[in-house]
Design a protein that fits this description.
The structure holds 2 protein chains of 2 kinds. Chain A is mainly alpha-helical. Chain A contains 16 helices and 8 strands. The longest helix of chain A has 39 residues, at 9-47. Mean pLDDT of chain A is 87; it is low at 446-451. By secondary structure, chain B is an all-alpha fold. Chain B contains 13 helices and 2 strands. In chain B, strands 1-2 form a two-stranded antiparallel ribbon. In chain B, helix 9 packs across helix 11. Residues 328-336 of chain B have low confidence and may be disordered. Classes of the chains: A mainly alpha, B mainly alpha.
C-alpha cells in the first residue's frame, strides 16, 4: 500500500509548508497590528468622547477575535508541520531552533488571554483600565513576531551552539540562538511589515466603502487611523529594507547573487529590473541600470563595489536557476510595490501638510483601495525572497532541505487535502467578516455589548437558543 | 534537570487533557444531541459553556509539541516520522474544529450553521481519538528510537492505540458532561441538568468499563506500561478509580458540589499514571528520557519560560475568569 501511493515527498513537503505559511502570514499582520489601531480608536473614543471611534474600536475587537482564532489554528498546524514535514531538522536541531518557539509560546498565550479580556471588558471594566488591556496584546503581538522571526533568522545565520563529533547539538547558548546575527534586522523588517500590511489592508476596506458612497464620519475614521499608521511605517520600512539588503550582501552572498541575478563575480554590476537567468546561467532581458546594484550594495565603494556572483559558490550550495529566477522576480515585486506604497504614503503626507486633512478624494481612494492587496503581495514576495533565496539549505551550511524532509511518500495527499481545506477556510473567513460588517451596518451606532458574532466573548447570563 | 523538564512536559499533557478534553467532549455531546429541534437546547448550552477560553486550549498542545521538540528532539523526530497519519488527521481536525467553531456563530442561514456544526462535532471526536491513538502507540513501544520511522499503519492501528483512542473520546465525553451539568445548574436550567446528568452517568460507566478492559489490553500488548501501572503508578490508578467512582456516586445522588473536581482528578491521575508508568522511558523501551534530552542550557531555557509563563499567565487567566463571572451576574440581574 505504501509503495502504491509513494511519491518523492520533498517537493510536496516544501509546497505544503510554503502554502500553509503563506496563508498564515496573511493573518499575522492583522493579529499583530490591529490591536494598535484599536488602541488609537479607543483612546480617541475616551479622550474626545467620540462615538464613532468607540464603535470602530468595538467592531475591530470582534474582527480581531475572528482573525486571531483562525490564525491560532493555522499556527497550530505549522507547529505540527515542523515535525511532520521536517522531522530530521527537528531531530537534529530542535534543541537550538526550539528555543525561540518556547519564548513565542509565552507571548501567544498572553495574546490569546488578553484579546478575550479586551472583548469581555466592554461595559464590564471602567474605560481606562479596559483601554490598557490592549497594551499586552500589542506587546505580545510584537514579541511573538520577533520570536518566530528569530527562529527564521537562525536558519539563515545559525549560531549559539556547537556540534559534537556525532553531529549532535551541544553547548547551546540560548541568548545567542535568539539574538543571532540575522535576527535584529529581519525581526524589525517583519514587525514593520505587520503594521504596514495591517494598516493598508484595513484602510483599503474603508476606502472601498467610502468610494461606494458611505462618506460618513465612521468610515472616514476607519480609513484614516489605519492608513496613517501604514503611511508612517512605509518610509521607515524602506530604510530598514535597504539596510537589510546591504546586510544580506555582506552576510548571505549566495542569496544576494540570486536577488540581483549576478552570474559572475564582478564590479559595476547593473541593477536589472525584471529579466531572468537562462538555463546556461547567463542573464538576459529586463531593464538594466548600469552600476546601480554595485552602488546600492555599498554607496561608499560606488560602482567599483564587487558583488559575488553565482560562480563563486558550488552549484550544489546555491539556489538553482529556476529558484534564482523566482527570488529575483519576488524581489522586484516587493521593491516595486513597496515603492508604489511609499509614493502613495507621500501623497497622503503632503496632502495633510498643505490641506490639513486626509485626501478623501476619489483619485486617491481609487489607489488606496488596492493598496491592501498590494501590501499583502509585497509581504509574500519578501518572504519568498528570504526562503527561496536560502535554498538548498534549511539550516545554512548545516542541513539541506532535502535531507531534512520526511521520508513519508504520502505527503502529496496531505498537501492536496490541506490546500482544499485552507481555501475553504480562507473564503469563509472573508465571507463571515463581510457578513458581520453588513449586519453591523444594519444597526447604526455603537454595537450592543452582547453581540454574539465574536467566537469568544462575554456569555449572556441566560441561554439563548 | 531532565526530570524537571519531563514533569513540565507532562504538566502540559495533563492540562491539555483536562481543559481541551472538556472542549472536545462538548463537541461529542453536540454530535449525538439529535435532530436540529430536539438538540437545540443542549447545543445552546454547549455553545454557551465552550465560549470563553477555548482558544487558550490550543496553547497547551503547542506547548507540549514545542517542549517535546526542543527538550527531546530525537524522540520527537521518531514520533513524527512514525505517526504521520494520525498526527496529520489530528492537525486537520483541529483546523476544521477551530474554524467551524469560529464561523458557526457568524453564519446566518440555518443550513450553513448546521454544516459548520456537524464539522465541528465530528472533528471534536476525530482529534481526541487520534491523539489517544498516538499515546497508545508510544506507550506500547511502537515508536522506535533514533529518529527512525516505525510502521506507518500498525503503529497506530493496534490494540493499545485503539484503547487509547476510544478511552480518550470516552474521557472527554465524561469530563464535558460533568462541566455541562454544572453550567446548566448555574443557569438554572433544570431540564438540561437532568439531561446531562443522565449522560454524565452513562459516560462515567462507559469510561470506567473501557479503563477496566484496558488493563487486559495493556497486559497483552504493552507489558512495560502494565508493569508500571501495577507497581510504581499503582497509587495513581487507585486515586483515579476512587475519584471516578465517587464522582459517579455523588452525581447519581444529585450532589453537584464536588463532582467536577473529582472528575478532573480522575482524568488527571490517569494521564499522570501513564507518565509514571513509562518512567524513565520516553519511548518504552528503546529510549530513556535522559538519552533524548537536549543540552542543559536548552532545558534551563524551557524551565525559565515555564516559570515566566506561570507568573504572567496565571493572574491574567484569573482576571479573565473573574470578568466571566462578573458579566454573568450583571446580566442575570437585568433579566430577572
Amino acid at each position: 500500500m505504501n509503495a502504491l501511493i509513494a511519491v518523492d515527498p520533498v517537493p510536496w513537503a516544501r509546497s505544503q509548508m510554503a502554502f500553509t505559511l503563506g496563508f498564515h502570514i496573511i493573518l499575522v499582520p492583522l493579529g499583530v497590528s490591529w490591536a494598535f489601531m484599536a488602541l488609537i480608536a479607543n483612546w480617541r473614543a475616551i479622550r474626545r468622547n467620540d462615538a464613532d471611534a468607540l464603535a470602530l474600536a468595538q467592531r475591530w475587537s470582534k474582527y480581531m477575535a475572528v482573525t486571531f482564532a483562525v490564525g491560532a489554528v493555522t499556527g497550530t498546524v505549522l507547529t505540527f508541520e515542523f515535525g511532520l514535514l521536517w522531522p530530521t531538522f527537528m531531530g537534529r536541531f530542535g534543541a537550538a531552533f526550539g528555543i525561540p518557539f518556547a519564548v513565542e509560546g509565552l507571548f501567544f498565550f498572553a495574546e490569546a488571554i488578553f484579546i478575550a479580556i479586551y472583548i469581555y471588558g466592554w461595559e464590564r471594566m471602567k474605560p481606562w483600565p479596559h483601554f490598557w488591556t490592549l497594551v499586552p496584546i500589542i506587546v505580545s503581538g510584537i514579541g511573538g513576531t520577533v520570536s518566530v522571526v528569530a527562529a527564521n533568522a537562525w536558519m539563515n545565520e545559525p549560531g549559539g551552539f556547537t556540534l559534537d563529533s556525532a553531529g549532535k547539538v551541544t553547548n547551546v547558548h540560548p541568548l545567542n540562538v535568539i539574538f543571532n546575527s540575522a535576527m535584529p534586522l529581519e525581526a524589525l523588517h517583519m514587525v514593520l511589515a505587520a503594521y504596514l500590511v495591517g494598516g493598508f489592508l484595513i484602510a483599503s476596506v474603508y476606502a472601498v466603502a467610502i468610494l461606494r458612497g458611505r462618506r460618513d464620519r465612521y468610515h472616514m475614521l476607519g480609513f484614516v487611523i489605519p492608513f496613517t499608521v501604514a503611511a508612517l511605517a512605509t518610509p521607515v520600512q524602506m530604510f530598514v529594507g535597504d539596510t537589510l539588503a546591504r546586510w544580506v550582501y555582506k552576510n548571505e552572498p549566495a542569496k544576494f547573487a540570486a536577488i540581483e541575478i549576478v552570474p559572475k563575480t564582478s564590479s559595476d554590476v547593473p541593477e536589472i529590473l525584471l529579466g531572468h537567468l537562462n538555463s546556461n546561467g547567463t542573464e538576459s532581458g529586463g531593464i538594466k541600470i548600469p552600476g546601480l546594484a554595485s552602488w546600492l550594495s555599498s554607496p561608499s565603494g560606488g560602482k567599483n563595489t564587487t558583488i559575488k556572483g553565482r560562480n563563486a559558490f558550488p552549484t550544489a550550495n546555491e539556489p538553482t536557476i529556476a529558484e534564482t529566477n523566482v527570488v529575483h522576480l519576488a524581489w522586484d515585486i516587493m521593491v516595486g510595490l513597496g515603492t508604489a506604497l511609499f509614493l502613495l504614503s507621500a501623497w497622503y503626507a503632503l496632502y495633510w501638510l498643505f490641506r490639513r486633512r486626509a485626501p478623501l478624494i476619489k483619485p486617491f481612494l481609487w489607489l488606496a483601495a488596492p493598496a491592501g492587496v498590494a501590501s499583502v503581495i509585497a509581504l509574500e514576495a519578501g518572504w519568498v525572497v528570504t526562503e527561496v533565496g536560502r535554498q538548498p539549505w534549511i539550516v545554512v551550511n548545516y542541513l539541506k532541505v532535502a535531507a531534512a524532509a520526511t521520508t513519508n511518500g504520502g505527503v502529496w495527499i496531505t498537501f492536496i487535502v490541506i490546500s482544499v481545506l485552507y481555501l475553504v477556510v480562507g473564503v469563509t473567513l472573508i465571507l463571515v467578516m463581510r457578513h458581520m460588517s453588513r449586519r453591523a451596518r444594519a444597526t447604526p451606532g455603537a454595537d450592543p455589548p452582547d453581540d454574539s458574532d465574536a467566537p469568544y466573548g462575554p456569555r449572556p447570563g441566560v441561554l439563548v437558543s | 534537570m531532565t526530570t524537571a523538564v519531563a514533569i513540565v512536559l507532562f504538566f502540559g499533557v495533563t492540562a491539555y487533557a483536562v481543559f481541551a478534553g472538556a472542549d472536545f467532549g462538548a463537541g461529542f455531546w453536540d454530535l449525538i444531541a439529535g435532530g436540529a429541534e430536539r438538540g437545540a437546547k443542549p447545543r445552546a448550552l454547549i455553545d454557551h459553556s465552550i465560549g470563553p477560553v477555548w482558544e487558550a486550549n490550543h496553547v497547551w498542545l503547542i506547548f507540549c509539541l514545542v517542549v517535546l521538540w526542543t527538550g527531546f528532539s530525537s524522540a520527537f523526530q521518531s514520533i513524527m516520522l512514525t505517526l504521520f497519519v494520525p498526527l496529520t488527521l489530528a492537525a486537520l481536525g483541529i483546523v476544521m474544529r477551530g474554524s467551524s467553531f469560529a464561523f458557526r456563530k457568524s453564519v446566518f442561514v440555518t443550513k450553513q450553521q448546521r454544516v459548520y456544526g456537524a464539522v465541528f462535532a465530528m472533528s471534536s471526536v476525530l482529534v481526541p481519538y487520534c491523539i489517544g491513538a498516538v499515546a497508545g502507540a508510544i506507550a506500547s513501544g511502537r515508536v522506535p528510537a533514533g529518529g527512525k520511522a516505525g510502521d506507518w499503519w500498525s503503529s497506530w492501528i493496534n490494540p493499545t492505540s485503539v484503547l487509547g483512542g476510544v478511552l480518550a473520546v470516552a474521557v472527554c465525553a465524561y469530563l464535558a458532561a460533568f462541566y455541562l451539568v454544572a453550567d446548566a445548574d448555574r443557569l438554572g436550567e433544570r431540564e438540561l441538568v437532568d439531561y446531562f446528568r443522565r449522560r454524565a452517568i452513562i459516560a462515567a460507566v462507559v469510561a470506567g468499563i473501557i479503563a477496566f478492559a484496558g488493563i487486559f489490553v495493556l497486559h497483552a500488548d504493552a507489558k512495560y506500561i502494565f508493569d508500571g501501572l501495577t507497581s510504581r503508578a499503582l497509587p495513581c490508578v487507585i486515586v483515579s478509580a476512587i475519584c471516578g467512582v465517587s464522582s459517579l456516586v455523588l452525581l447519581a445522588r444529585g450532589r453537584r458540589q464536588l463532582t467536577r473536581v473529582l472528575a478532573i482528578a480522575a482524568v488527571a491521575t490517569v494521564v499522570i499514571g501513564w507518565g509514571v508508568a513509562q518512567w524513565p522511558y520516553l519511548l518504552p523501551v528503546s529510549m530513556k528520557l535522559s538519552q533524548a534530552a537536549a543540552p542543559d542550557a536548552t532545558l534551563e531555557t524551557i524551565l525559565v519560560v515555564f516559570v515566566a509563563a506561570a507568573v504572567l499567565i496565571v493572574p491574567s487567566l484569573a482576571l479573565l475568569y473573574h470578568l466571566d463571572q462578573r458579566s454573568m451576574l450583571a446580566s442575570e440581574g437585568v433579566s430577572q
